[in-house]
Amino acid sequence: MLDKLKKEVYEANMLLPKYNLITFTWGNVSGIDREKNLVVIKPSGVEYDVLKADDMVVVDLDGNVVEGKLNPSSDTATHVELYKAFPEISGVVHTHSPWAVSFAQAGLDIPAAGTTHGDYFYGSIPTTRQMKREEIETAYEKNTGSVIIETFRNRQIDPAQVPGVLVNDHGPFTWGTSAVNAVHNAVVLEQISEMTYHTLQLNPHGITMDQALLDKHYLRKHGKNAYYGQKKETK
Amino acid sequence: MLDKLKKEVYEANMLLPKYNLITFTWGNVSGIDREKNLVVIKPSGVEYDVLKADDMVVVDLDGNVVEGKLNPSSDTATHVELYKAFPEISGVVHTHSPWAVSFAQAGLDIPAAGTTHGDYFYGSIPTTRQMKREEIETAYEKNTGSVIIETFRNRQIDPAQVPGVLVNDHGPFTWGTSAVNAVHNAVVLEQISEMTYHTLQLNPHGITMDQALLDKHYLRKHGKNAYYGQKKETK
Amino acid sequence: MLDKLKKEVYEANMLLPKYNLITFTWGNVSGIDREKNLVVIKPSGVEYDVLKADDMVVVDLDGNVVEGKLNPSSDTATHVELYKAFPEISGVVHTHSPWAVSFAQAGLDIPAAGTTHGDYFYGSIPTTRQMKREEIETAYEKNTGSVIIETFRNRQIDPAQVPGVLVNDHGPFTWGTSAVNAVHNAVVLEQISEMTYHTLQLNPHGITMDQALLDKHYLRKHGKNAYYGQKKETK
Amino acid sequence: MLDKLKKEVYEANMLLPKYNLITFTWGNVSGIDREKNLVVIKPSGVEYDVLKADDMVVVDLDGNVVEGKLNPSSDTATHVELYKAFPEISGVVHTHSPWAVSFAQAGLDIPAAGTTHGDYFYGSIPTTRQMKREEIETAYEKNTGSVIIETFRNRQIDPAQVPGVLVNDHGPFTWGTSAVNAVHNAVVLEQISEMTYHTLQLNPHGITMDQALLDKHYLRKHGKNAYYGQKKETK
């Protein structure tokens, strides 16, 4: 069942240690089959060096396991919420990558400080509000998804143009057009977190990129007038 | 004698270079056989690339060598004190991992700034008071254990729930349900030291994780209602 | 056509991942044949692990492709501008190396803080002014070159003595006597960015290297009285 | 000639890339035969991956080449000055390791902030005064040695107990009982520079290690009452 997607999601999970985004099992990647409305996700707490494509768990959009011998990631309900609210995405990643977590713990957005940011994220990467006691105590992982969705709706951010978020006091979720693309965005998020941290230390008032430069860099890689790479719309 | 425990302690010691927790021989791991009241510990000052399981030294709870050709770690008396005071632990680790040492040298606790911390440590990781001249000059390593124990008792911290400490002006000790689990906690301590350092630089007043979130994350991985991983009580 | 230069430019491009200067495809190296006035440059958006010498693209000094199946780097027009304005250079590198980007995003020059800097860069490494809206919207990559050239002319900096620049809110370009030498300067720029960042954090008023020390270090490696290395004029 | 010492100095040089202390050729190690008063040192500007034991250059205590096809390190005169002034040392290392350079460029001593420091350096690691114009312009490398020696004499620091220094606006020199031991001290210096940097950022007034703790740690590894390791006086 969904063997091709399982292989793709497995391979995307294995990119997390490759790109130094995780310690132990602190991360998970999923992908969705939009026709069948089924999500393939990493099992919970399994070490990467023993993980196999066949260990991937299939869940439906209520979060129920449809196939798989292992428990799905404890964050499955967050992934499912994101797939339901953001129909344009087909992959989701959660990590505790250290630079992004540093901003999440500080409760700060990552401002668009330069063109590296603009090449992938079309504006500030938001940090959610802190979750309320009742949101934490009941259906915590589902509510983590809800607070992300609320952030994008209230702040009128397009999740296709800003493919990531920091959950306050927790860490990053990213997404994309596929599981691998979502990992790609997780790598970029970590890298720009590191650079913008140092920029802020050098010059706390120095984040002043012009909107025209952000437009230029985002749009030279995305949309119908993109011209970066070997064909239109590469990412 | 204790061949299984020696192998386990040896393998736990070899995780220190694997996880980049040590420079040269600046670390040691021990494990205890609680039935025989014997501790197995790394020999002092032996390089990791020549260390063998058979080099592990067996000491009793007075710190006397019971078996072994080599001198035990110079920190043996600290390990022994911890085993005597904290009956729930079966492994102890000491390193000079750089981010944790930075907090120890600054004399600062590591506050619980986010869920990565909460997944493993149920509250602030304390830094001991500075040791007194007389504690340093006589039975220094034993007194290092005593000041750790005093910290947990005076501040009413449960060592099973906060499996680590920073010794002031020195560095981290962690412990756990086994030698390997104690190393696991040493890795986590180093990682959260790094992230919380950066959080404090971004926002010195930004450490505001809600107790409910700390409860949620700690208890979803620990205790009878844990649901992370593939079975109850994995760590 | 230009097989030797293609091989050299290919090998120089492959040094970028070797020296950890790039993430994904965020970098490009070119070299010029000054007799034929032809530039060899990396194709746009091709991953380093599949890149071949034969993929290199040949362009003329108007930026037109003369040979090659792939699109040249999207930054080609910047490289070409630099070759036209700075006749003494034969290689150009662009990366998003994180420490240099941190200064670029902060809009700050990298001051000459010590002898490591002085061994390669004879004075501050300038950051350009921010580009104007009209410069961004039309012929952006060409204008990126123009603003670099303006910086060196207005501030009377000799590009042979300061072989690199930070483009404001973007990142570093370096150059040199060959493609490999330009990569060498990119490595140095990243390293001194890191060290000078930390120097500024330790002591914001502590950048006080004497001109005589800068002269000594630069001139012991460069020019007719150089005495570093095994022959005159090694770099 | 001096084949054993050449091999030892060669191997000590090869530890510099192993321990990530150098970029390109920015470092050199020497050793001395105290009976013959001859120094063996790395040749200038030779890449580590082509360096051979046989490339090592032999110089006398006037800095004249006694044997060797290549030019000796451009810093040879500094090494020679140190050997003449500090008869207890038999190895010298110079690097541009980035954390130590950060302090050197800031013109700050590295204070003894914790036991890692105290295990190897018995007190603050001094930074020299800035060199004067005339010291730089004539016999620069020899005068670099002189300003180091002046620092230790004026501040009454014992070079056997504090086996390293930062040359202002330049970088670290370390020394030791052998070439390998001097490299060992260079590794430690870099590590404690990193940790103490972060300590100072966390708590600028937090460097308060008690002299008794410094005494304890230094003397448990050095001198006649040392008890660390497998025999007396290991380092």
Q: What is the CATH topology classification name of chain A? A: L-fuculose-1-phosphate Aldolase
Secondary-structure-derived class of chain A: alpha+beta
Note the beta-strand portion of chain A.
5-15%
- Give me the oligomer status: homotetramer
Q: Spans of chain A of 5+ residues with little confidence (pLDDT < 50)?
A: none
Tally of individual helices of chain A: 8
Strand arrangement, major sheet of chain A: 4-3-2-1-5-7-6
Give the terminus-to-terminus CA distance of chain A: 29 Å
Pathway (chains A, B, C, D): Carbohydrate degradation; L-arabinose degradation via L-ribulose; D-xylulose 5-phosphate from L-arabinose (bacterial route): step 3/3
Family (chains A, B, C, D): Belongs to the aldolase class II family. AraD/FucA subfamily.
EC number (chains A, B, C, D): 5.1.3.4
InterPro entries (chains A, B, C, D): Aldolase_class_II_sugar_metab, Aldolase_II/adducin_N, Aldolase_II/adducin_N_sf, AraD
List keywords for this structure.
homotetramer; 235 residues; alpha+beta; L-fuculose-1-phosphate Aldolase; 7-stranded antiparallel β-sheet; 8 helices; 7 strands; globular
Describe the overall structure.
Chains A, B, C, D: Its EC number is 5.1.3.4. Chains A, B, C, D: Involved in the degradation of L-arabinose. Catalyzes the interconversion of L-ribulose 5-phosphate (LRu5P) and D-xylulose 5-phosphate (D-Xu5P) via a retroaldol/aldol mechanism (carbon-carbon bond cleavage analogous to a class II aldolase reaction). Chains A, B, C, D: This is L-ribulose-5-phosphate 4-epimerase. 4 copies of one chain form a homotetramer. Chain A has a 7-stranded antiparallel β-sheet, sandwiched between helices. With 235 residues, the first copy, chain A, is an alpha+beta fold. Chain A has helices spanning 3-18, 76-85, 98-106, 115-118, 133-137, 140-154, 179-202, 211-221, and strands at residues 27-33, 38-41, 57-60, 65-67, 91-95, 164-167, 171-176. The longest helix of chain A is centred in the last third of the chain and has 24 residues, at 179-202. In chain A, helix 3 (98-106) packs across helix 7. Chains in contact: A-B, A-C, B-D, C-D. The interface between A and B is medium-sized, with 33 and 31 residues.
